[in-house]
């Protein structure tokens, strides 16, 4: 095996990186501007210098996708940077379930609360050609990234973005319409747990994308209130849940009159996606 490549693998495993061989290959591919499968050794001195620069960032625990500037999620490649949460494989289950619920050619309207890179709503729209969507985020920089991704994936003509804080009193007026489906992966880490997260997460994902308040559930409580107004009767809401949160989340929405349809586990058997439905009979709308 090439000596330089071996050295990268050694250094990566020395700081506890889980897939040092794969990451070394991806770093070399980026440094040589080649496809990982087409990579050839030895690297030129300039390419080695570039690879070492990338390696140093990884040794400082910058996530590889943020070094490379993009990440695969569901069936597409998404641009990522420090302004967006890195899309996680765990979230693909929410996309799969949403696509399963939406009959593929239905002309439905979807709301994504906390759109980030746009990975959820854009993956759904790519599979459902007659659906349209709105992506909301508090972060203007994440919306710029989501817009670029929408263009790259070819869904930008069916997707609008709104910059807004869902805790604002005027949120419903800003959104100004109702939806057949709401999807959301809101921040859900309890504030006190953030310091204990891996450096890849706590130092490189935006804090606003992580912090779910004292018990991690602040955003779910607010989204439940808002969904009473924003979801059409009979419409569905799909929420990503952190470990051990699914039943609490279901309870929050049930108290607002929603009906729990299913809790879906991810591949690690963690209850990851909570699916609720708004009953066809009108829910009483309190002031919000
Ligand atoms: C966990 S990230 C999810 C990002 C993306 N949907 C995904 O699944 O990868 C949560 C997102 O919610 C946004 N957010 C946090 N608080 C918000 C608020 N009060 N109003 C609107 N968006 C908010 C963050 O900026 C972040 O993009």
Concise summary:
The chain has 288 residues and is of the alpha/beta class. The chain folds into two domains: 3-60, no CATH class; 71-277, 3-Layer(aba) Sandwich (Rossmann fold), CATH 3.40.50.150.
How does this model look, in words?
- The chain is of the alpha/beta class.
- The chain folds into two domains: 58 residues, no CATH class; 207 residues, Vaccinia Virus protein VP39 (Rossmann fold, 3-Layer(aba) Sandwich).
- The strands form two sheets. It has a seven-stranded mixed beta sheet, sandwiched between helices. It has a two-stranded antiparallel ribbon with strand order 1-2.
- Helix 6 runs parallel beside helix 7.
- The longest helix has 15 residues.
- The structure holds S-adenosylmethionine (SAM).
- The site of S-adenosylmethionine has 22 residues, from helix 6 and strand 4.
């Amino acid at each position: 095996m090439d000596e330089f490549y071996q050295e990268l693998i050694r250094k990566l495993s020395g700081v506890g990186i889980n897939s040092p061989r794969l990451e070394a290959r991806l770093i070399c591919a980026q440094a040589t501007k080649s496809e990982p499968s087409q990579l050839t050794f030895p690297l030129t001195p300039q390419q080695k210098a570039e690879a070492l620069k990338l390696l140093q960032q990884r040794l400082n625990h910058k996530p590889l996708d943020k070094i490379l500037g993009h990440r695969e999620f569901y069936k597409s490649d998404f641009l990522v940077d420090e302004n967006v949460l890195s899309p996680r494989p765990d979230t693909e289950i929410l996309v799969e379930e949403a696509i399963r619920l939406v009959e593929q050619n239905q002309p439905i309207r979807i709301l994504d609360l906390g759109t980030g890179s746009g990975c959820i709503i854009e993956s759904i729209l790519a599979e459902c050609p007659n659906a349209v969507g709105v992506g909301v985020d508090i972060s203007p920089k994440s919306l710029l990234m989501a817009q670029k991704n929408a263009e790259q994936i070819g869904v930008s003509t069916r997707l609008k973005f709104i910059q807004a804080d869902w805790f604002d009193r005027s949120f419903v007026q800003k959104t100004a319409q109702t939806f057949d489906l709401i999807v959301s992966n809101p921040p859900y880490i309890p504030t006190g747990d953030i310091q204990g997260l891996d450096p890849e997460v706590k130092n490189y994902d935006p804090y606003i994308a992580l912090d779910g308040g004292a018990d991690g559930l602040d955003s779910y409580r607010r989204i439940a209130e808002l969904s009473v107004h924003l979801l059409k009767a009979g419409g569905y809401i799909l929420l990503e849940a952190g470990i051990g949160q699914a039943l609490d989340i279901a309870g929050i929405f049930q108290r607002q009159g929603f009906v729990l349809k299913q809790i879906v586990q991810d591949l690690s058997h963690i209850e990851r996606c909570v699916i609720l439905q708004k009953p066809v009979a009108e829910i009483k709308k309190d002031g919000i």
